[in-house]
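Hi R.,

As promised, here are both runs. First protein below:
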Amino acid sequence: MQRPSRPVTNRPSNDTQSNAPTNTDWQARHFALQIALGMIGIVALIIYGCQLKEMQRSSKAAITGLALSEQMNRIEERAWVAPAGISGDLEVGKEFRPQVVFKNSGKTFALRMASSIKIELVKKGSDPNFDRVKEPSKVDDIWSSVLLPPNGQCGSLPDPLEKSPFSQEQIDSIRDTQSLFVYGRVSYADIFGHYHWTTFCYLYDVREKTYGYYNKYNEADEDKE
């Protein structure tokens, strides 16, 4: 009589069960992978942030450099107007009305050039009243159509000195007791639309019949606009 055979089952052996991965092991590896990817992402963001800041700094520096370059180019190319000389002597029987010559030493036109010139006799040792010279506050206040080209010159005359002409006795008195000033301001715009000015002050030597710059009121704008 045959012995019945043992039924076949699909249950794995103990050896097979010990070699198979468990759910806990898979979750641990998955979690570690997520942490690694997260750290890589953080490092990438830090690197990107640093690069972005550097790009912003470089861009800002480039813009600043361009602005400075444009400003320097404008300063080099702008008009520069100042007195180039003065002539006219105090003579017996003649009006004292010296001519001031202005020159544009810049590379471009001076636009809407206007001057205000005053003559003043003051007690020796005193300063002239420079407040008499009108100062435009902006380009639109310069009511002039005068254009002065590069290296161009233009003469301007003030109103005659009050009480002139003088006799010789009066001229001798001025020489001994008074100082004779010719002073003023020239205002103009450059081709870039900026307003500029130059002030001047001459002291006339009655004895020598010469002009010299006084130690005050000879200034020019600093091109801040």
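And here is the second one, sequence first, then its structure tokens:
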Amino acid sequence: MRALLEGAARYVGAPKTARTRPGLSGRAYRLAKVSGERFAWSSPGANWNANWLDVDEGACRVELWLIRLDLSEQARLSLHRTLSGSERERARAFHWEQDRKRFVVARGALRDILSRYLGHRPEQLRFCYGPHGKPALHPAFSAPRVRFNLAHCEDLALVAVSEAADLGVDIERVRVMPDASQLVMHFFSPRESATFATLPEAQKPKAFFRLWTRKEAWLKATGEGIGQQLSQVEVSFLPDEPARLLAIPSAFTHTAWSLADVEPAPGFAGALAVARPEVICRYWIWNQTADAGSS
């Protein structure tokens, strides 16, 4: 977290006095619709059908997959065999073995999930990357055009999948950060900093990670990443306040955005951003043992 924020510092600059800034929209967006019971994570089994994303009822359909990253050695090796040479090279670059193993599972599970929608084997998939590193499926796999986003924290990962709109997802473990107020002051907007300062200390950990995950999910959906627009997008984050975009750069105001919280597990915060005004979600638990070979 600290390294990410420090890396963004060269774009954000020094704190500014609170004022209306040019290029930001004050329009508020929120998730208009979520199907079924929210965050009712379940194994897909016979209830899952890749064609569910195809149905157009005026709303964008999104499926969220929750992944446990700490698997057995056998399961991890099975996933490792599906990775590309560049993915294996990225895995070897991790200093800590646990981080290396979790990266392998996250990328292997991502391939397994996407293969179910595309009808290809996981190892056949190819990826390309945007100017700021956002992954996408290679144009060779453009029919149907499946959009996805991956986030992981500690032993959990989330994958969001849609055929209708760009999207971003983020996940973080809620924890006390002694320098949270300083981070908000230096790297987030003046309005966010002023609001955060009014909170009791006991509420600041959850508020900080609501702020972070909601902001990060939107930035990932746009493909910009935190280094580009971190202080220029503002989100709600007070206790019991619905997830909303309060301000975004003018270049993105032509899109009707949705923003929603995701609850992957106790003690974690998550968020989903989608470039559509109305979204219907389903929540699945990825399980390699039960679902292997379904592609």
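A quick note on the second one: Residues 234 and 268 are 21 Å apart (CA to CA). Let me know what you think.

Best,
J.
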